Sequence to fold (667 residues):
Amino acid sequence: METFEIDESPANQAAMRRRRQICIGFLLLAAVGAVCGCIAAWRYFTKPEESGSETRIGHPKDHKPPYPGSSPDNLWWFIQISDIHLNEFNGKERYHQFWHFCSSYVDIIQPSLVLVTGDLTDALHGKRSSQNEMEWEMYKKCLEDSGVLKKTLWLDIRGNHDIFNVPSADSEKNFYRKYSYLGKKGETNFVHSQNFSFGTYSFIYVGALPMPAPKLPFNFFGVLDKNDLKSVEDLTNQTRASNSTIYFSHYPTSFIVSRNPGLSTITKNGIAFLSGHLHDIYGDVPDLTIIQRSGTLELELVDWKDNRKFRILAFDHDLLSFVDATYGHWPVILITNPKNARYLAPKHEPLTRMQHATHIRFLVFSSTEMRSAKVFIDDKPLGEAEHVKGPLYVLKWNPSLYLNGLHRISIQTQDVMGHKSSQSQLFSLDGSRPNQSLVSSVILMTDIEKMLKVCFAIGFILTFGPLILLRIFTRPTTISFLCIPFAKLPLLRGLLWLAHINILFIIIMLLGLLILIGPWFIGELVDGYVGFVFLYGAYINGSILPDPITYKEATYDMMHFLVPFIFHLALQVELFFPLCNQLSLIKCQRKVLQRSSWWLKFLISQLFFVFALKRQIGYSRFLYRGYGTMALFLSPKYLWTALMMVVVYFALYVTYYCRRKRQAARL
Fold:
């Protein structure tokens, strides 16, 4: 191998300064572009009212009676609960509190129906994911013993945990069909209509659950094919005459993979899309509620499993309002008029009725009798509300005083036991809305499938692109490439050498091909059915499941395995081979011992190796626990790669010491 040299001539130094200026210029331009992009994204996600005229189309019943007054007419409410995750081994308290919810809370709230949006059972036992009949028996026993099925309409649908390791809908492992209330009806898209003297309100179930259903980590995304979309569209057409239409599913719309024209073109016909699935994203996003740019509310509910959350929703004169409540906290207050300004849906509800309303209206649910309910607007006391019937309280007001801009209404209540509660929200009568949460909007408004694919593509290019460019445009004796100002960095020098060592370069490129074409591993994705996992999904039982979770896994794998492994190789090559090519063996050893930084670089390279190897061994253990011995030994992307890493690691040292021996023999 030739000697590694850097040209220190004045002409080269001037060229380096020019290239450094060019690099800085490009970085500044990129920074300006990034800032502009962030501003545009912030406006796009937090200001849905600016999405065009479609969301500003008025409702046919605008300025038409009946208007909200002191009467309990034109009012009804229902409950949503999600992600219960009943578990045989963990969560006894979860079960007993869910039973108490079904037996007592439903009695207190008296909803017209209860929507249970999936993950009825946990189906997780350590790293294994499979249906447990005992958990389903617990669920059914809870419904029967609490008597909730005699008190209200119970609509329980499946979540991804409810179908782990289920090969088909007719399988004996499909315990949902046997133990749930809806049974076979809940396995396909359906519509339920709630009829009252003042109108009809329709609920359309969007299934989106893949079948066959592999074990963890698959099924994290829902899937709708053309037939499923056609089914949802047909159900939507059946509900055109309804006062309002609500879609509900286990998955939020951004986590449902659907082909053109897409699910959003159908759900824009409804006032809201109710879901669960995301819980509160490990406590980081406790409020996943937004309004889509189509004008439809997207309302994901935090889980019952860890947070004991449930949601009360009410239609008051066709205006939809809701409040998220926590088990054990009374009283619960739901303000229905004026409704929360964050969730105004002018295309789907007659908002101008609030301008003609004679009374403020709100619902108070409590386990004991109420003592007082006081109303404040803009921190000014308006008076004490009057109890009408059931949970309804009203207070006369003059809406003309609040026609412009945003205002804040607050309700303070106290029951006879001394329990106090308050609820506050912004409202507007002219259509003004506050900005919605940026984080929640990005999660629920972004096409997560496309975002994961873009992230993977960027990660793949950044991982393999530099080595390919260095191999094409440089030689191992020069540093003539675009980023020459940074050529003195040890890691960059190592990458230059790595790009020109054929065997190591080929190994790295083969790892990239393995990610792209696979298979990653072969095993029983469903008990009794052998499947293949690729970047583009899983092939099992004659079906291809296009689960985007594979793109997330590939991106994560590049960050936690490939990049550290490449950095390890680059530092190893830079430390050993160029140095010993320029010095004799004795000088090399003396130079190494004198340079304390050499040991630091050596330590960092070893840490990179350990980090990368830990990732591969960890995932190999996951495969063994989750999919069995076959998946462990037939996993080119994990176990085989870990073994390859160890072989390359020792081969580098053998090569280095053999070279030292040959040089020593020449001296």
